[in-house]
Amino acid sequence: MKFPGRRRHKHYFPVEDKDPLINQLGSDSGLKHSYICGIDQIVVDIEAKVDQAFLDEFGLQRGMSQVIESDITNALYERLKRDNMIDYEFAGGTIGNTMHNYSVLADDRSVLLGVMSENIKVGSYAYKFLCNTSSRVDLNHLQPVDGPIGRCFTLIDDSGERTFAISAGLMNHLRPESISQSLIENASALVISAYLMRTTANETMTQATLQAVHYANQAGVPVVLTLGTKFLIEQDPQWWAEFVEKHVDILAMNEEEGEAITGFNDPLLAADKALDWVDLVICTAGPRGLFMAGYVDDRFKRETEYPLLPGAIAEFNRYEFSRGMRKADCKNPIRAYSHTAPYMGGPDTIKNTNGAGDCALAAVLHDLSANEYHKLNVPNSAKHEQQAITYSSLAQISKYANRASYEVLVQHSPRLSRGLPEREDSLEQSYWDK
Fold this sequence. Notes:
Blueprint: H1 20-23, E1 36-39, E2 43-49, H2 52-57, E3 65-67, H3 70-82, E4 86-91, H4 94-106, E5 110-113, E6 115-117, H5 125-131, E7 137-138, E8 143-145, E9 150-156, E10 162-167, H6 181-185, E11 189-193, H7 205-219, E12 223-226, H8 230-234, H9 237-247, E13 250-254, H10 255-262, H11 267-274, E14 280-284, E15 290-297, E16 323-325, E17 333-340, H12 356-377, E18 388-393, H13 394-409, H14 430-433
Parallel strand pairs: 1-5, 1-11, 2-9, 3-10, 5-7, 6-8, 11-12, 12-13, 13-14
Antiparallel strand pairs: 2-4, 9-10, 14-15, 15-17, 16-18
C-alpha cells in the first residue's frame, strides 16, 4: 500500500523488516492488507470524432447516454471502422476505471465484480479489457457468461460534447448468487454506480447490486455511489435521493449530477444538501475544481491555515484540515467543506474528460483504504482515537484527487498507465506542504 498524496517522510508507520518491536510479532505475521470492492458493467470504450449528421444517421441524441440494440451496434461499429474514424479503444466502465486507477495509485489489490466472456479470443473485446486492466485488480470473482461483454461508444463532436451509445451485450447479467457475502463484508468499501440500476426485465445486474449493498449495509462497510450521468438521475430524482439516504455512505458526483439530485446548481450547496443523506461528498466542478464535504466531531475539528473562502456558505473551508467521520460516530457533528482549484490551473490542452471523475474518486478511495490499512496494522496508534473514515484531511484529499484527475485530462485513455511521480519538477513542494 502506497500512502496517498505526498508526505514529508519515507515511512509513515513502523515497517516490519526494520522495526524490532514489529518483528517480535513473529515472522509469519506480515502486514494485513485492505482492499476495495466494486461492481461494474464490463465494457470496452470506443472513442471516435463525429458530426451531428452521424448522430442523426444512427438516431442518437447528442450529449446523452443511451442503450442501443445489437443491429445498430454492428452497423455503427462497421461504419466507424470503414471510414477509419476510431481514435482509441480502451477497457472501460465507470467502476472498472476506478478500480484500475485505485490499484495503480495504491499499488494494492482491488476486486472487480461483473461478467466476463467465458470463451475469449485474441483481439476480442473481452481480450482488450483484460489486457488493459492492472494486474493488481482481482478479476477472479467475475461471473463467466456465454456471450459478449458490453461496448460503449464515446462519440465526440466539434464542440467537445460527448454522446454515449452503449451496447449491453451480456454485461447486465451478473446474478445475485455470484456476489460473495464474505468478500463484501471484509472490504474497505463497496463502490457502485447509478448505471447499475438501468436494466431491463430479463437482466439481473440491479438485483445483484442490491444484494451486495445489503451485505455492505449489514456489515457497516461504506457504500460509495458515483452518479454517472445527470440524465439518469433526472428521470426520478426523488427515488435516487431516497436510495442514497437509505443505503449510501459516500456520494461522488459532478456539478450537473449534483443539481439533478439536489436541485442546487451551486456545487457547494449541492454537496451541503447531500450531507443530509450521506457522510462524505465529492463533487467535481470542471474548471472550478473539486469540492468536498463531510462531518467531523466538534472535539476533533481542525481549522484551516489557508485564507477563508467566500461562497454560498460563508467561510465554508474553516474546518477543511479535519478528517472525515461518519455522522453517527460524532457526539456533536459539524459540517466541514473544502475546495481545491484545478491542479496547475488545469492542462493547456484537455485531451479527454472521460474518466477524470473516476480517477478523482480512485484517489479518495485510496485515502479511505489507507486509513483501514493503517488501522489494521497499527490499531493502537493515536491516529485512531478519532473514529475517522479518512486517513488525511479533506483539504489534502481534495488536492490529491485533483492531482490524480489531471493525469487523465492530459492523456487519451481514461485509465492511468502509472502512479503519480515521486518528484514533480513542475510543482512546488509547497502545494503539498500547505
